[in-house]
Amino acid sequence: MTEQELQRRESLSKLREMGIDPYPAEMYEVTAFAQDIVTQYQEEILEDGAKNRLNFQSVSLAGRIMANREAGKALFLNLQDSSGRIQLYLRRDDFMQGEEAPLFDIAIKKLLDLGDYVGVKGFAFKTKTGEVSVHVQEFQFLAKSLRPLPVVKKDAEGNIYDAFTDPEQRYRMRYVDLTVNTGFRDIFIKRTKLIKTMRAYLDELGLLEVETPILQPIHGGAAARPFKTHHNTLDMTLYLRIANELYLKRLIVAGFDGVYEFAKMFRNEGMDRTHNPEFTALEFYVAYKDYNWMMDVTEQMLERVARAIHANGESTAEVGGNVINFAGPYRRLTMFDAIQEYTGINVETADESELRDYCKKEHIEIDNSMGKAKLIDEIFGEKVEKHLIQPTFLIDYPVEMSPLTKKHRSKPGLVERFELFVNGKEVANAYSELNDPIDQRERFEDQLRLAARGDEEAMAMDEDFIRALEYGMPPTAGIGFGIDRLAMMFTGQTSIQEVLFFPQMRPEVAE
RNA sequence: GAUCUCGUAGCUCAGUCGGUAGAGCACUUGACUUUUAAUCAAGGAGUCAUGGGUUCGAGUCCCAUCGAGAUCACCA
User: Fold this and answer.
1) What CA–CA distances, in Å, run from A357 to A286, A344, A362?
2) Which of A241, A230, A299, A285 is nearest to A267 (CA)?
3) Domain count of the fold of chain A
4) Which bases on strand B have an atom closer than 7 Å to a protein beta carbon?
């Protein structure tokens, strides 16, 4: 233990010796928040020069002590609660009556540490330097802090000193990060607002919020490697879901007109600043609709989210120097037109060898197993994706890449699918859902052939899902959003770790 | 997975050419009854990420390992 930790444990036992409980069980009544007092406190100067205080004359607040300035027999503390900070003013005279005398000199002045949770009662006033403060009349320990917090200081110009900046420590000890770097709380508040706004919108559309299994015997619905686990009683292998799509569609089969789920997904793949092993997706499916309808809905929903998140109701967000406008309508561009626009290649007429030559010329990595569809996907990823800054629907994909998507109503070889790109990154994936059970079985069989050739991410056959489709699924539009990536866009963050409270980390070396 | 950078006091960081470890804040003691990055005086605090190697001598040079960040690859 460090010197400071030992000192704090010493303070703790001294408090107990004085009969003060450092961790009282009783609830503490809070009647005011720091920020409200600071912004709403008012006083008037009377004719005789006296001050007439107009509000907050009897308040009770609670929080953490974040600064301590002793001034002789007075004491100035900064108290931080969920709303912000306020200065506390304590005078020994207020605590000197009779047997309470030691409380001030010993318990408060000596045994109070930065980071302690306390409750105070008193009245608001303005110090002679003009700071709204609380003159404390009653003081109580609520929870002793045994470890020193990083002390971040700010001067009058707003310059920050000794900020707690080490990303490793910030992510490992988010409780410390959010205590001393309170500005980061706003990211998470906005993240929640994003989800609540989407939920409200979907509820208005009349969709039903549902929950589907996280532990799945067959990992379907996406192309990704799963986490594998084992159920002891059933003695069977289960997978943490990589997607919930096939379950949500079973519910459309069941007769719900629309269902949605905010779902944690788990993918056993690399980690970087846009990938965490577990992440959140919103998926929703609506019967009797198609992907054109879904594009309209997406525009409306994202515009509403943008306006809800920004205090001024703006529909724009700034990410990495780009100002992105989420007000619809968004550009709708076919994948083939997009490639034509950014590379000059006519994918429709080009054959596989032409595409191969282009990739070699442009140093795009390919291998011999790739067919035309895969080559198109590679070219798109290398040459087009990064240009799609403003929200853009990329539509009509080759059928080979989309085993769960309905064939295009008029374009042979394509499917009715779109992905939404914002700031050069994919944030949503949607399609007119494949509801022809015979076609679906053939698509799964194609996937099995890919798996046999060594494609680790090919989908497995899901006989029960086929059975569900055989009973009949109405024409349906479905979509999945990457909530973490959306949260990044709406909060201007470039790392997924900044929008997750507890990003995955390698194990810490024991203290 | 590859490459590069980083890891020194609770926090933020210095540490020269290899010569037994420094600052500010925080902490301890004292002074000060309207201070506010409070101030003033004195003091304490370190397995220099871990393990090896070179050397008379390693925070510093070399190797390995662990952790983090960035870039790339992979992955919707």
Assistant:
1) 42, 14, 9
2) A241
3) 2
4) 1, 9-13, 24-29, 31-39, 44-45, 49, 66-76
Instruction: Say if residue A267 is in the same domain as residue A416.
Output: yes
- Name which of A426, A479, A482, A477 is nearest A293 in CA terms: A477
pLDDT in tens, A468-499: 999 999 999 999 999 999 999 999 898 999 99
Per residue in A81-111, pLDDT (tens digit) is: 999 999 999 998 887 666 655 566 667 888 9
Domain final residue, candidates A123, A149, A175: A149
Residue A161 domain flag: no
Q: State how far the alpha carbon of A442 is from the alpha carbons of A246, A400, A439, A448, A461, in Å.
A: 16, 11, 5, 10, 10
What is the tally of helices (H) and strands (E) in chain A? Answer: 15, 22
Q: Is A156 domain-assigned?
A: no
ipTM (interface predicted TM): 0.91
Asked if residue A72 is part of any domain, the answer here is: yes
Enter the tokens of residue A78: 């900064």
Amino acid A71 CA to nucleotide B33 C1' distance, rounded Å: 7
* Domain ranges, residue A237: 185-330+390-499
> Does at least one atom of strand B sit less than 7 Å from the CB of A123?
no
CA distance A237 to A455: 21
Provide the whole-model pTM.
0.92
